[in-house]
Every structure is written in structure tokens, then in C-alpha cells.
Structure to design on (250 residues):
């Protein structure tokens, strides 16, 4: 059986202090990679504490770094810090995202814009700054969502952003192919994370009825798909979106 060895590789996971980001950073670190977990400063400091606790738990080869993916300048500073600490950049996982669910008729302009700014423009900003820093043969994996394909009620902003991530992934994969840098996305179904727990219970029950495997996913199951895409085993896979949703869609 071929194992995944990412020794000497350096990965950045945006929003990696909790949920899917935390599981992904943990999986990459277990495979031998240096891992930088980016966090966004919120009013109560929870993001920073979570990121630092995650890095501390991982131990050697892991750091927590402040960054706001909505700002290219902030992303640039973060990536420079990572390169200074570990000497290279080989893997980028675009995980940072927010939810601002509301039907379009009731949605405020800032609820639309804030989701687009973080979930789509944030991916653009990170990719834009990472491209010149990534080693040839590197990996970019962005978090899409089943919502970007089926469209969930009350998620016009989120669905639009995640669909945009898929389009960005396809186009960027062609631009970076000459450097053997692969660019892919993973589209989870509903996974029981802190974010998913904000979905009303009645809505989750309806979602569960549509999943052939009759259960929600786990963060580790999503992280394992990302780990595969970041590994040498996936060197000829690019421009793709991998659906990990228990058979719900795809």
C-alpha cells in the first residue's frame, strides 16, 4: 500500500483553527508537512485561540498566523511569514468561509457582499499572492460546496460564491499546468462542524433524507480527500471538483 509522505512540504490552511480546516491541517501535518494555520481576528478573539491551540496541539512544524483573506496585503504578509519560517510554499488550502443565510428578498447588501468577499474574493486573493511563491509541482485545493451545485434555500450568496470557486479552479488549473501545479476543489455535502450546527434542525433532517448513505460526513472524511489531492498520488488530477457527500450529488 502506498502511503502519503509530505515531508519537507509546507502547507497553508486558511481558517484552519476549527472544523474542516482543523481536520485538514491535522491530516497534512500527520503526513509530514509543515503547516501554517491562518486565522482572522474577530471581536472576542476566538479564532486566534482556536488556531493557536490547534498549532500547539500539532507541535513541531505547525504555526498559527494572522491573516484576513479579504485583503491581499494581509495575505501577502502572512505568506511571507510562512516562507520565512519554513523556507518554501508547496500547498495552499483555501478553507476560510462564512455563512450569512437569508432569503434573497430579505438579504441585506452587506450579507451578500461579506460572503462574496470572504468565500470567493478571499480565494482569489490567496491564489493571486500564492502563485508567485508556490514551488513548481505545488498544490492548490479550494473548498467548494454541494450548495454551489444544487443551491440551498436561503443561500444565494453562499451558493454563488462556491460556484465561483469551481469556475476559478477550472480556469486557474489551465494557467498553472505548465508548472505542474495542480488546482482542484473539494465540494463537501453537509458535514457536522461548528458551521453546520448553525443550520436549523428541521432543515438538517430534510437534508439527511436526500443522502443515500443516510448520514452526514465527518471532517476527517473531507480532510482525507484534500490530503489525497495534495499528495504525489494526485499529480495528474487538475481542474477538478471532487464531491464528498455520501452520494447526494455528483
Amino acid at each position: 500500500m502506498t502511503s502519503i509522505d509530505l515531508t519537507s512540504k509546507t502547507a497553508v490552511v486558511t481558517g484552519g483553527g476549527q472544523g474542516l480546516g482543523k481536520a485538514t491541517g491535522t491530516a497534512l501535518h500527520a503526513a509530514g508537512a509543515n503547516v501554517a494555520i491562518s486565522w482572522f481576528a474577530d471581536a472576542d478573539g476566538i479564532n486566534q485561540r482556536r488556531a493557536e491551540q490547534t498549532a500547539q496541539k500539532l507541535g513541531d512544524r505547525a504555526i498559527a498566523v494572522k491573516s484576513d483573506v479579504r485583503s491581499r496585503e494581509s495575505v501577502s504578509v502572512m505568506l511571507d511569514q510562512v516562507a520565512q519560517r519554513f523556507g518554501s510554499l508547496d500547498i495552499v488550502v483555501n478553507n476560510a468561509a462564512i455563512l450569512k443565510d437569508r432569503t434573497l428578498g430579505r438579504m441585506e447588501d452587506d450579507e451578500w457582499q461579506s460572503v462574496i468577499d470572504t468565500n470567493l474574493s478571499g480565494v482569489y486573493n490567496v491564489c493571486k499572492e500564492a502563485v508567485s511563491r508556490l514551488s513548481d509541482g505545488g498544490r492548490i485545493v479550494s473548498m467548494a460546496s454541494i450548495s454551489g451545485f444544487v443551491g440551498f434555500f436561503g443561500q444565494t450568496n453562499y451558493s454563488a460564491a462556491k460556484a465561483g470557486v469551481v469556475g476559478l479552479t477550472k480556469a486557474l488549473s489551465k494557467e498553472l499546468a505548465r508548472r505542474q501545479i495542480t488546482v482542484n476543489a473539494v465540494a463537501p455535502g453537509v458535514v457536522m462542524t461548528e458551521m453546520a450546527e448553525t443550520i436549523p434542525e428541521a432543515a438538517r433532517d430534510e437534508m439527511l433524507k436526500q443522502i443515500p448513505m443516510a448520514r452526514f460526513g465527518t471532517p476527517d472524511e473531507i480532510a482525507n480527500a484534500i490530503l489525497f489531492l495534495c499528495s504525489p498520488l494526485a499529480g495528474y488530477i487538475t481542474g477538478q471538483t471532487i464531491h464528498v457527500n455520501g452520494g447526494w450529488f455528483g
User: Anything to note?
Assistant: Residues 156-176 form the longest helix (21 residues). The beta strands are 10-14, 34-39, 62-66, 91-94, 139-143, 182-188, 241-244.
